[in-house]
Amino acid sequence: MEQHNTSAHRVVVLGAGYAGANAAGRLARRVRRDEVEITVVNADSEFVERVRMHQLATGQQLKARPLTAAFAGTGVVLRAARVTAVDVDRRTVAVTDDLGDHEIGYDTLIYALGSTVADHGVPGVREYAQELTGKASAQRLGERLRALPAGATVLVAGGGLTGIEAATEIAEARTDLVVALAVRSELGDWLGEKARTHLRKTFTRLGITVHEHTDITRVESDGVVTAAGARIAADTTVWTAGFAVHPIAAATTLAVAADGRIEVDGSMRSVSHPDVYAVGDAALAEGAGGRPLRMSCASGIPMAWAAADAVAARLTGREPEVKPIGYTVQCVSLGRHDAIIQTVTPDDRAKPAALIGRSAARVKEMICSGAAWSVSHPTVLMPTRRRRIVRADNMIDTATV
Question: FAD/NAD(P)-binding domain: from which residue to which, for each copy (predicted)?
Fold first, then answer.
């Protein structure tokens, strides 16, 4: 097992998406770097703006965001490696990189490995469908779209935010393709009336066919089969019907939900292992109104802040301030010049008010850019307030420095 500064408290953060990167950067502002060693383990050396994968798939160039630049000046150490296992009883993480397999020890773990595509057991998804859960998959879809001739058909399966954004982006970028969207219920049924009306108008404007109340039971090389026995032809199927967490946590002794998410309290601390915190898509946390937080950037960033503040508080002899995480809006891009900003209650229920059109697109872009900016500037978002940690032997008292 690799050895580091044995006198420092070792915090290991698994994953550097919106949640993991924000947790690491914020924690670095709360503790002294000579007393707390923060290591981020991530398979990619760059931060990936997951909310822009539909843009990447349609050939748009995204700004490069090296994680080394994001963490410069923070004291956070980036370890480019893939996590293969976690042993929460021995407090170790198994990783692999270009040099082989390694083991990293920790005192506190922040688990932020995120999610991947959920096939829901539907045959053919893995073999024939494209997906958009990461940079590599978005680039593969982009290659596939570029290879399609005029008149080819693209079916997007899944009517959530990812599906709607993918369908509209593809239809806008490739007006020569025939684009369709299959949804299990009604198009945008979680939105308010104003937003739903605008969404339908946009789909009509872009020429997107909507197959409502359609449950796909099999994906084939040239289309899909529905639960009703109907067949929808497609040269390319894009699967966006939900997310699934990586199975690593479920293989440990951590308390996890049926879907594999780590069960946490209001401070994002594991209910079974007090030295483990989980944030983002990997965590099952209760939000405002007692409803589970949904897998999203809108959940992941405040979860990361809560975890970082809780770790810092407990290390420095204080109890964390726990506040329920709530929502204010849902943002849906509809191509580059159209969007919906749906106002919601703190427990994520749609209100009547919504901003639509070009103004909404500008607000959506500001929100997406702000989320990426928060990762690239972790030392700017808050004043420095580092405290001494409280060691087991009580030799160090808490003191603001």
Answer: 10-308
Tell me the CATH number for domain 9-116+244-325.
Answer: 3.50.50.60
Can you give the pTM of this predicted structure? 0.91
Identify the CA nearest to 208 among candidates 173, 243, 240. 173
In what helix (H) or strand (E) does residue 339 lie, and over which residues does it extend? strand 339-344
Q: Give Cα 58 to chain centroid, integer Å.
A: 20
d(CA 301, CA 309): 12
Q: What is the pLDDT of residue 393?
A: 39
Q: What is the pLDDT of residue 398?
A: 39
User: Which two tokens mark 183?
Assistant: 């949804």
Residue 10 CA to residue 189 CA, distance in Å, equals 46
Q: How far, in Å, CA of 367 to CA of 373, rounded?
A: 10
Question: Which positions of the chain have pLDDT values less than 50?
Answer: 3, 381, 383, 392-401
Dig out the tokens for 346 from the structure: 């703190």
Q: Which residues pair with 94 in a beta bridge?
A: 85, 103
Domain segments of the chain as ranges: 9-116+244-325, 119-241
Identity of the amino acid at 289: G
Kindly report the backbone phi and psi dihedral angles of residue 239, in degrees, each rounded to the nearest multiple of 5, phi listed first.
-95, 115
**Neighbouring residues of 377: CB distance < 8 A, sequence distance ≥ 6:** none
Q: Where do the DSSP E strands lie in 17-107? A: 36-42, 77-80, 82-87, 92-97, 100-105
Distance CA 324, CA 288 (A): 5
- Selection from 305, 316, 275, 325 nearest residue 27 by Cα: 305
Check if 9-116+244-325 and 119-241 are the same fold.
yes
| Residue 203, both tokens | 């789909």
Fold of 119-241: FAD/NAD(P)-binding domain (3.50.50)
Closest to 165 (Cα-Cα) out of 372, 396, 289, 331: 331
